[in-house]
Design brief:
CATH architecture of the largest domain in chain B: 3-Layer(aba) Sandwich
Strand order of the largest sheet of chain A: 3-2-1-6-11
Largest sheet of chain A: 5 strands, mixed
Number of helices of chain B: 21
CATH topology of the largest domain in chain B: Rossmann fold
CATH superfamily of the largest domain in chain B: Tubulin/FtsZ, GTPase domain
CATH topology of one domain in chain A: Nucleotidyltransferase, domain 5
CATH superfamily of one domain in chain A: ATPase, nucleotide binding domain
Number of domains of chain B: 3
Distance between the termini of chain A: 25 Å
Oligomer: heterodimer
Structural class of chain B: alpha/beta
Distance between the termini of chain B: 64 Å
Number of helices of chain A: 11
Radius of gyration of chain A: 23 Å
Strand content of chain B: 15-25%
Strand content of chain A: 25-35%
Strand order of the largest sheet of chain B: 3-2-1-4-5-6
Number of strands of chain A: 18
């Protein structure tokens, strides 16, 4: 058993903090041996808003997970979201140096260095450098080493975030006495679970509509070409309802879950729903039409923003596999229809693959599962694209970790 | 004999009674302001003077108001500003003497302007400044542009709001986005603007009625000034009206459902509150008490409330409540505390605490790990405060009322969520002008 390592995958979400415990055996197997969840507090729009409350619920979730697995976690893989995460596409270029025009190892290194060299403003750190395909004299190649050409180009999708916001989350874990092994942005974690290799090759958009944020990732030719966070989620739906119908949040949430629909049904114009439904004082009936109107307006705007963010990548030709919706808000009835219409893509609800245990297949766990998947693939030395920048990533996490000795 | 006594101008009686009347002037600035003034029909308040100020000669010529001031003839040649704020400002500067004369000697000046255009945004702040400079209590009603009118107008309106807040005693914004909500599906543009006019009318009428009419509970000008002691803060403004058997309760419900209470331009809590209740002859002290208790509880103000109640014989069985509140910037911490704390709070002690001190005071109740937090990064006080209110929130959940925390809007103390110049935390339906019809 000396080879096995116990890792915890933690997603501090706006609605729920989810922890999965995985046992890494050797380099190829990860057994999920425990899980824990706790409803979140002190998190708004994916960012730590109240440190103490956030710590308490995260610690409760980790404890529950450790208890269910009856082990102690060695280190944590942490999912990251929040509007402070930004991404940019950087290109690097190198002229092939050898006289035979054969690409050598140092040419690749130079191109990669060139792409990663963009300096960030103070207080911002890179989280991921995700490599996109190499181009040799304009031709896309997967592995340029020993190929012939004169000009080698490479693109990187680099994700960076605010150092302070990132360390907020890391400190939550540190306060429990654990170190953060690595951070992965939520969209990539969720995306890796709900898409198949063929879809990634063809081109697919994964939209994780959570409680506080909407995270998206675009795959094309098997590479991650764009990621992003839009700080709008289920909380906004609830807040809109609460303001529009002038009810409190609790009731707004209830109305959203029970009577919400993403599409406005013109026929159901006169349908009324009860706010509480048990004839208590203060109970009143509300038009369902109004509920759907408010939800529809918000979601349609959200999809419009996504479409705008994607730009030329958001077309049907570029993304033949369409859009996959995951996250808590994707459970709203009719949301797939609206997404398909607003984004003009094939829309479907994302599902975790069949090998995942029944109880973990729900949208709650897809990000945490993705983290474990990432932890596993990160330990292999194979050429998995999203882990190609492993070394730097580690450094970031280590840099932000507080010292515990 | 007696008659003679009264007719003589220099007896002690008449000399005392007539005194100096309070001079109230309502000034409409710019196109929207002028239009609003034209439609303003104040019932039986002859003491109030109306005036229009505009750069557009044509619009001014059509105005029904007696006192019209054309500004910037040399700047715009009487053709309006075409949305140029700088032109609006220049026009005021050019005609400063005329405007000084306009506000000269007024005790109470209401400025009604539509912000976002040239004259409204450019001229209104300067007129407010002039009025305030000569000592008038200045209250501005500003109509804010629809979101779909674009970012430029919104930016102009925001800037003008900032300037107005500096010089006015109170600024009451009426966002057009919200106006649209209050009307039904079939409402025309005219109806929506009519609604704004109606709100302005009711607010002005209430304040004037309080001052000029003798009421059940009478208030004078000095006590009105008490409400507006400090400038620059956000305001609270809400109207409620109902008639029928259960008018008091319904008017209160209407007041608390007023969409203006639920948007971010307004504060949810006030430090100083002006409450004017107008009712028929059946308005009893008991009803007044019920209204005051609810209003002060919901708006979190206990210390400084100025209340007036007037009787209007024609309004039997109906109640109208108008609430205008101001917040004091330096005391912000005061009203964010839960009411329980506010009661026991000694208002004499200094209210502005140093941040670390306050954090300590509030952080004492939870367990010690707080120190760990503070040692590395200072935690914003709002985060600590929220924790304390949590306990309060759970108590409230037992009942079916809006709890304090919930009323304040969920995203209030998070960063603004800007995307393409729009704040995404504001409900989309409001920004897109989609009407939500709650009543059929």
């Amino acid at each position: 058993m000396s080879q096995s390592k116990i890792i915890g995958a933690v997603e501090i979400g706006t609605a729920k903090t989810v922890v999965l415990v995985g046992e890494l055996v050797g380099d190829s197997t990860c057994n999920i041996i425990g899980k824990g969840a706790c409803s979140s507090q002190g998190i708004k729009k994916g960012e730590v808003h109240d440190f103490k409350a956030a710590s308490n619920c995260t610690h409760a979730a980790i404890l529950a997970a450790e208890k269910s697995a009856q082990v102690t976690i060695d280190s944590i893989y942490l999912a990251q979201t929040g509007r402070h995460l930004k991404g940019s596409f950087n290109r690097g270029m190198a002229q092939v140096s050898s006289s035979h025009n054969i690409v050598g190892r140092q040419d690749i290194e130079r191109a990669v260095e060139d792409a990663k060299c963009k300096q960030l403003p103070v207080e911002r750190v890179y989280i991921h450098h995700i490599r996109n395909p190499f181009y040799l004299d304009g031709q896309q190649v997967d592995e340029p080493l020993h190929m012939e050409g004169s000009r080698l180009e490479v693109g990187y999708w680099s994700v960076h975030g605010s150092e302070r916001k990132l360390s907020d989350q890391i400190r939550v874990i540190n306060a429990f006495g654990l170190n953060v092994e690595d951070m992965i942005i939520s969209s990539i974690a969720a995306g890796s679970m709900v898409t198949e290799e063929s879809e990634k090759q063809a081109g697919v958009l994964v939209l994780d509509i959570g409680c506080g944020t909407t995270d998206y990732v675009v795959y094309k030719d098997g590479y991650i070409v764009q990621t992003g966070v839009i700080p709008v989620g289920g909380d906004h739906l609830t807040n809109d309802l609460s303001i529009g119908l002038r009810v409190n949040r609790k009731h707004a949430e209830y109305l959203k879950l029970n009577y919400g629909h993403a599409l406005v049904n013109k026929k159901a114009r006169d349908e009324k729903v009860w706010l509480i439904g048990d004839f208590t004082i203060g109970d009143r009936n509300l038009p369902r039409f109004a509920i759907c109107q408010i939800l529809n307006a918000r979601l349609e705007e959200l999809f419009k923003i996504v479409k705008k963010e994607l730009g030329r990548l958001g077309t049907r030709d570029y993304l033949p596999a369409g859009v996959k919706l995951v996250g808590g808000t994707s459970q709203l009835p009719g949301i797939d229809l609206l997404a398909g219409e607003a984004l003009n893509l094939e829309a479907s609800l994302g599902r975790s693959p069949d090998w995942v245990q029944e109880g973990l297949r729900g949208p709650d766990y897809s990000t945490a599962l993705g983290l474990l998947h990432y932890a596993l693939t990160g330990h292999q030395d194979g050429d998995v694209q999203q882990t190609s920048s492993k070394g730097l990533l580690r450094k970031v996490a280590r840099m932000l970790n507080l010292n515990f000795s | 004999m007696q008659g003679d006594n009264f007719n003589k101008p220099d007896t002690m009686f008449t000399g005392n009674l007539s005194g100096e009347p309070i001079r109230v002037k309502i000034i409409g600035v710019g196109g929207a302001g002028t239009n609003a003034i034209d439609r303003l029909k104040l019932s039986d308040l002859t003491e109030v003077h109306l005036a229009s100020v505009n750069t557009d000669m044509q619009a001014l010529a059509n105005s029904l108001v007696s006192e019209k001031i054309m500004i910037g003839r040399g700047v715009t040649r009487g053709m309006g500003t075409g949305g140029e704020i700088a032109l609006g400002r220049d026009a005021v500067e050019a005609d400063r003497p005329a405007l000084e004369k306009l506000v000269n000697g007024c005790d109470l000046v209401f400025i009604v302007a539509g912000l976002g255009g040239g004259t409204g945004s450019g001229a209104a702040p300067l007129i407010a400044e002039l009025a305030a400079a000569q000592g008038a209590l200045t209250i501005a009603f500003t109509m804010l542009p629809f979101t779909f009118e674009g970012g430029r107008r919104k930016k102009a309106a925001d800037e003008a709001m900032g300037l107005l807040r500096k010089s006015c005693d109170a600024v009451i914004p009426l966002p057009n986005d919200v106006l649209l909500q209050t009307e039904g599906d079939e409402a025309t543009v005219l109806d929506a603007f009519g609604m704004a006019d109606d709100w302005i009318r009711r607010a002005i009428q209430s304040i004037c009625a309080m001052l000029l009419k003798t009421g059940l509970i009478n208030q004078d000008f000095s006590s009105l000034k008490q409400v507006f002691v400090e400038r620059g803060g956000k305001t609270v403004f809400s109207l409620g009206y109902a008639n029928g058997e259960n008018a008091v309760q319904q008017a209160l419900d209407d007041l608390l459902l007023c969409p203006l209470l639920h948007i971010q331009e307004y504060s949810k809590k006030a430090d100083n509150l002006l409450v004017q209740i107008t009712g028929g002859t059946d308005l009893t002290m008991g009803k007044v008490n019920q209204i005051m208790a609810t209003v002060s509880e919901k708006l979190g103000c206990r210390d400084n409330i100025v209340m007036g109640a007037t009787i209007d014989e024609s309004r039997t069985n109906s109640v109208e409540i108008v609430v205008i509140g101001t917040t004091v910037l330096s005391k912000k911490s005061n009203y964010e505390k839960p009411p329980a704390a506010a009661v026991s709070h000694n208002s004499d002690e200094p209210l502005v605490l140093d941040e670390p001190e306050q954090a300590e005071a509030l952080g004492k109740t939870p367990a010690p790990p707080e120190d760990f937090t503070r040692s590395r990064y200072e935690v914003h006080e709002s985060k600590l405060k929220k924790k304390k209110q949590q306990a309060n929130l759970f108590d409230q959940n037992e009942f079916m009322f809006l709890s304090e925390e919930e009323q304040r809007g969920f995203f209030d103390n998070t960063e603004r969520n800007l995307y393409d110049g729009e704040d995404l935390d504001v409900p989309t339906y409001l920004r897109r002008g989609i009407k939500i019809n709650l009543k059929e």
